[in-house]
What does this fold into?
Amino acid sequence: MSTLTLQQLTVGPLQENCWLLADPASGQAVLIDPGDEAERLLAAVDATGCTLTAIWLTHAHFDHVGGVAGVVAARPVPVWLHPADTVLYENAAASAARWGVVVENPPPADHPLAEGDRLQLGASTFLVWHLPGHAPGHVAFIGHELCFSGDVLFAGSIGRTDLPLCDPTAMLQSLQRLATLPTGTRVFPGHGASTTIGHELTANPFLRGAARPLGA
Ligand SMILES: [Zn+2]
Ligand SMILES: [Zn+2]
It folds into this structure.
């Protein structure tokens, strides 16, 4: 983490966390889940003095991808997405409309993410874990004692498992997997405050196994 900087940018009507991860040593930055307010996100990138090099998506619910079109229109950077979420991705605008939210459909993703992929930001490497359940192509980005958990794990709670394409049993397995991370791992979720694996193992009934995802 020593050379990385991290900024939480909570955007849109669903208060989604976009994470701006920058590496001043290499001058590179990535946006994780630019869900809305593209202009504000780009201004935050510029304020780091770094150049945006990629968009990493944990999953393709509209609140996480609604800002992709605006960001890519201004900075044509590659978009990384697990292909199992392509259906959600291509229907983001229609899904948002059902919530009364207007977003632009994102351009096609450029790179398919898969379990075990290693993503590079300057000299830092982040491992891709495929964690289906909340969404079929949900992933987490893990490295340097950081975990970007999207809508799988929140502080004190977990993501919904009652939406179309959810799989409660897969969610249970994904949570069990996250529970194996070192307790000092800092967790940066798609909504709400950041936390640690150690804190969630004591405070979150879903992570310590005392409660199960709805439907599991
Ligand atoms: Zn979601
Ligand atoms: Zn979300």
Observations:
- The radius of gyration is 16 Å.
- The longest helix spans residues 38-48.
